[in-house]
Amino acid sequence: MTINWFTLTYAVYWGVVLYVTVQIIHQYTISSRASAWLFTIYVFPVVGVGLYFIFGVKRRKRKIYQQKLSSDQKSLEHYLSLFPDETKGGNMELPEALHPFSGLTEMIVRDGCSRLTAYNQVTLLENGEEKFPRLLKDIQAATQSIHLEYYIFRFDQVGNELLQALICKVKEGVTVRFIYDDYGSLGLNQSVLKRMRAHGIEAWPFSELSLFAFTDRLNYRNHRKIVVIDGQIAYIGGINVGNEYHNELTEGASDNQPFWRDSHLRIKGQAVAYLQSIFINDWNFCTSQQVAIDDTLGVDGQLPESGDQKLIQVLSSGPDSPQPTILFAMLQAIHAARDEILITTPYFLPNPAMTKALKIAVLSGVTVKVLVPHNSDNWVVNAAAQSYYYELLEVGVEFYKYTNGFIHAKTMVIDGYLSVMGTANFDERSFELNFEVNVMIYDHSFAEQLRDSFARDCTRAKQLNVNAWESRSAVKIFVEKLARLISPIL
């Protein structure tokens, strides 16, 4: 009997397609994401199925992340028992401006994240030129511990300078722990890692990429950027470690290297302890160690304080969280707006809920302005993002395309009081797949700083006109809409 291998292969392939179709329908409750994957596997034969197995299988509820979630929750409960919520104890008078956001603050608490912390000092750092010198100065003053968690760490001039400072601190007896994302930091080769470890730096990948765990880990990336020094000072924001984030180093070095516009935060105060707890939970997960949060809370185990009264909540989300906490918080913040919403993001790929929330805000009389790059560093993402502009421009959302290089900042300011900063982009990957961390800052003076920064950036941007945008070529619009079909899975 002669076997027709073509027929057999054809039958097996369509059997796999049928299996994948059933899996997509079964596991995706969000219809847009299910539709995007179905479109991909049927329009791009073989390739689409391969992409699904790498990026599409939902592993949020897999055992490894359930274990991390359970461990994180126990750790947080222990932390809360050490430092009871001062705001609920009635020892601090809450400002009237916070009242419209009471639902937001309560939602973040109920979702297992940060309580409202007080006595925080916050410094806005624009671009690597401001971040790296300040960070190095704080590292050089460290006496107990330095904890670093980065998505991208390049061993270039910036990375080498930071590494040298860390090596010096290890020699002084300071504990240095370093978590890196194995995908984002592909350039961090084994020789560099061996050098780190040889000098006493404890360096671990968050989830090491391997042949057998490739699909499990490639799609679930640790996008967090956290530094905690002595449990007293923390850094968080959009700036990774690399020369491209430091414009003074790249100026004139290459015509292909654009001006990099980014934002970061330096925090001193009670919120630092929450960022420390996030780091320690991630550290214990990727190293299988059991470092106690009590031992890392800072000088004499005391909750850090500063002279300022800024209120902050810290929230994290990822495959280890029961809910997409950052997405929920962003939606709740937008719904709470009464006057103005200012959004800066390098990747604008809102899901249906976010799109509706922005439309409702504008139709309710809220001014909504969105600042995005003129050109993204990913043409597919750029095309998909532009497909969202018209329907939002049509209802009154103002879009500004930054033309002075690439804008990578991730910020939102609401009603001149609530500021949102961190690592999460305005897309499904940040809301559903990546490990991310954001902070909510409730303070008029800091919000005014971010508003001024947004206004300056808009002077280097081109505002889109709804009529001009609608009149673009039919081919361009079609390509953008085609890219949009797969935007939920980018």
UniProtKB/TrEMBL annotation:
EC class of the enzyme, as a word: transferase
Listed transmembrane segments: 12-30, 36-55
Protein origin, superkingdom: Bacteria
Pfam families: PLDc_2
Catalytic site positions: H223, K225, D230, H408, K410, D415
Chain ranges of the PLD phosphodiesterase domain: 218-245, 403-430
Catalytic activity: 2 a 1,2-diacyl-sn-glycero-3-phospho-(1'-sn-glycerol) = a cardiolipin + glycerol
Entry keywords, A to Z: Cell membrane, Lipid biosynthesis, Lipid metabolism, Membrane, Phospholipid biosynthesis, Phospholipid metabolism, Repeat, Transferase, Transmembrane, Transmembrane helix
EC number(s) reported in the record: 2.7.8.-
Lipid bilayer topology: Multi-pass membrane protein
InterPro entries, per database record: Cardiolipin_synth_Firmi (IPR030874), Cardiolipin_synthase (IPR022924), PLD-like_dom (IPR025202), PLipase_D/transphosphatidylase (IPR001736)
Cell compartments where the protein resides: Cell membrane
Family: Belongs to the phospholipase D family. Cardiolipin synthase subfamily.
Physiological role: Catalyzes the reversible phosphatidyl group transfer from one phosphatidylglycerol molecule to another to form cardiolipin (CL) (diphosphatidylglycerol) and glycerol.
Name this polypeptide is given: Cardiolipin synthase
